[in-house]
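ok so i was messing around last nite and threw this chain in just to see what happens. nothing serious, just curious
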Amino acid sequence: MRVAAIDQGTTSTRCVVVDSGGEAKLVVSRTHAQRHPAPGWVEHDPEELLRNIRRVLAAAGPVDAIGIANQGESCLAWDALTGDPLSPVIVWQDARTADDLAALGPAGEARSRAISGLPLDPYFSASKLAWLLRHVPAVAEAHRLGRLRLGTTDAYFLDRLCGTFRTDRATASRTGLLDLASGTWSRDLCALHGVPIDCLPEIAAVDAGFGAIDGTPVQVSIVDQQAALFGHGCRRPGDAKITFGTGAFLLAVTGHERPASAHLLPTIAWSRTKEETVFAIEGGVYDAGAALEWARRLGLYETTADLDGFSGPSALSRGLVFVPALSGLAAPYWDRRAAPLFIGMDAATGRVDLVRAVLEGIAMLTVGLIEAAAADIGPIERLSIDGGLSQSGYFARFLAAASGREICVPAFHEMTALGLAGLCGVDVGFAHGAATRLVPDGSVSPADHRRFAAAAGKSLRWR
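result:
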């Protein structure tokens, strides 16, 4: 069996062909434009994303099945009759709805957490969809005419490519509109945000089938982070992974009951047709790869080779700290007004020092997620990581030292694609045989942790 696993992410669309013979090959990757029409706004062109999916799928050649992973919380509006987009994609990083959510007050926050498990944060889709109805005339007009469709990007892709207006339960759990107890859209939360429930897609199991593209069945559709969790082989409660892409996202499996988390967020890991729904807890860092890309644009480094080979004590131990809050701070802070900052520079500070501090700052925020997860579900002794930053030996070693845990780096880095193939029925155990295991070495001291915590505290409520 050959599966075309399409990972439609924040910065690119990638296609990996995985077959049951134990081979996985990245076929092609296509980038797309990032638009920032106003401070705190992030948008994509939905037609460009759709074209890139078609192009990478064409490059894959003949396959037996297709799996598609989506960005998660990114969403848009489109016309039910023509399929034409009525808005740009509002990306998960976008913070334009912060004031709208603040206006819902503590009662709205409590209601959201009770039903969906999620806080009122611009990260999630609900307030974005409501914003489109209020601010884009074409969206309001389509609603008046009874031809409006609203949803995350997966529903748009499936509608346009397969004629199937569906989403899976894991992706739906990232909107802030799903009732976690019932696995259905919540009328209460739709009313809270002002999102018409009849404009939302049908919710299905991840492997329920989503139609076909040119005769090839789209067997699986799921949010990218949950696909990566499955790809890492995380099946038992306590199994955890962190994906370092544009952001960094930790997911830990909790079992078949909704988790009660004091620190991170309950979410659906996956919901398959022949088994009980699997739940997880999730926490994120908004700016991981995004922070490095920002540093590259500033001229602090040129190539990925510049992210390794450092010598001597860490930047953090020398008092140089970076808090990567370019989009604010996510779990457990939930503060969109937090500001990025460098602390501890002097006349001798150079570009290499600053790059090192950026890497360490991303790792230190991630350690906060690990500790929060451990407080909820018990000891976490080992974590699997993937994504671009996982390929930096310095970063992975520093993360092991800072977290005090073994870090496992798989030899094959396209874990979202492996998860898609696994959910399609391919045995992807072959990808886990040659992982690099890094053990903590104690080089990050309690004083270093206190120094970073103090810096993160200074960034809060800054803007």
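not much to say yet. The chain has a mean pLDDT of 93.
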